[in-house]
Amino acid sequence: MFMFRSRRGNLVKKLWKLQCRDEKQNQAQDDRRNVATAMLKRLKEPALEGLVRAVENKGADTGSCCLVPKGDLRLGRHTVSPHLLCCQLFRWSDLTQEWELVRLPLCMMTQENDQLYTCCNPYHWARLAKTGSSGIPGFTSEHTQNLSGHSSALLPGYSSNCPNSQTSSYSASTSLSTRDSQSPTSAPPSPTETSDSSDPSSRYLPPSYSSLTPALNGEMFWTEDDRIDSTSNSTLACSVATGGSTQNCSSTDSLGRVTWCTLAYWEERTRVGRLFQVRSTGVEVFSQLPRPSPLGDAMCLATLATNNLKPSESTLKTREKIGLGVILSHDEQGVWAYNRTEVPIFVNSPTLDVPNSRTYSVFKIPPGYSMQIFNYEISKLYQRLRDPTTLDGPFDPNAVRISFAKGWGPSYSRQFIDCCPCWLEILLVPPR
Question: Is the model's pLDDT at 398 over the cut of 70?
Answer without folding.
Answer: yes
